[in-house]
Amino acid sequence: MPVTRGLVALVLAAGSGERLAPLTTLLPKALCPVGNVPLVDLALGRAARVLEAAGTPAGGESMAVNVHHGRDALVDHLAGRVVVSVEEEVALGTAGGVGNLRGWIAGRDVLVANADAWLGGAVDDFADGWDRERVRLLCVPAGARRGDFGTASYAGMCLLPWAQVEQLGADPSGLYEVLWRREWEAGRLDPVVVDTPFLDCGTPADYLRANLFEAARSASGSLVDPDAVVARGASVTRSVVGAGAEVRGEVADAVLWPGSVVHHGELLRGGIRAGRLTVLVR
Q1: Of the candidates 15, 27, 36, which has an alpha carbon nearest to the alpha carbon of residue 210?
Q2: Which of 53, 82, 159, 259 is the residue whose CA sits 20 to 30 A from 104?
Q3: Which of helix, strand or coil describes residue 114?
Q4: Judgement on whether residues 40 and 174 belong to the same structural domain of the protein
């Protein structure tokens, strides 16, 4: 059942990406590519599909991204596409970032999505049947790990009713601390558990895993941008190769950012090459 009250989407992209260093010394985390697409664009596409399934046209007036670390690069990347909320002095966190946009949200409900979340399956129907009163969280089974909410772990997307958004301030704060924990303890939280692969691309290991999942979707088992060069005698196996990258040696279970080079006689396995930087995951 579509959500009938107005719904907007906010993608959270203001984080520093410290755990993803040293890659984030080159690009903001939200611009790091997975499957040759920047993470923030994957999140915007996912959010747009949820909005459209809920009956809200997705576009510049119904979608926003908050930025702080790496703001100049993100502002340039997003210009003219969505509302960009620049957090000037400090990053405001997940709750403060939403509260800072109350004037834009203006009585509507909000889909909040983490830019660094990777999901292997479609969640277009996430808003179906939502009562627009409880906070709804997208979750995956925790498995052997300790769950965030019982046996479920948060998977980077939530729905917030305006009544809750209206109470959020524009000060540095987190949604779990100021809202979710209270609602969970009161039995009012609405976790929706989906059985789909999920990764928080916050570390080089999980970032690489997300890319390899994307590579595995293709018929060849690798994703090679049409503008990349794979020389005669070179090989690409289970990998993602970006635009303008050159493979003259061997690449396996790896990611090459745009413009990167693997030289003749070289083997890059289980790592990420970003220009002159190579991060190996063991």
Answers
A1: 36
A2: 53
A3: strand
A4: yes
For the residues 227-255, what does the mean pLDDT come to? Answer: 98
Same domain (yes/no): 185, 233: no
Asked if the structure places residue 1 within a domain, the reply is: no
Q: What is the pLDDT of residue 145?
A: 83
Statement to judge: residues 142 and 238 lie in one domain: no
Q: What is the pLDDT of residues 192-208, one digit of tens each?
A: 999 999 999 999 999 99
CB 95 within 8 A of CB 177: yes
Give per-residue pLDDT as tens, 7-22: 999 999 999 999 999 9
Whether the predicted pLDDT of 4 surpasses 70? no
Element (DSSP H or E) covering residue 7: strand 7-12
**How many structural domains are present in the chain?**
2
The position carrying tokens 């719904």 is 7
Cα 23 from Cα 147, distance rounded (Å): 29
Name the residue range of residue 116's domain. 7-200
Residue 2 lies in a domain: no
Distance CA 240, CA 247 (A): 11
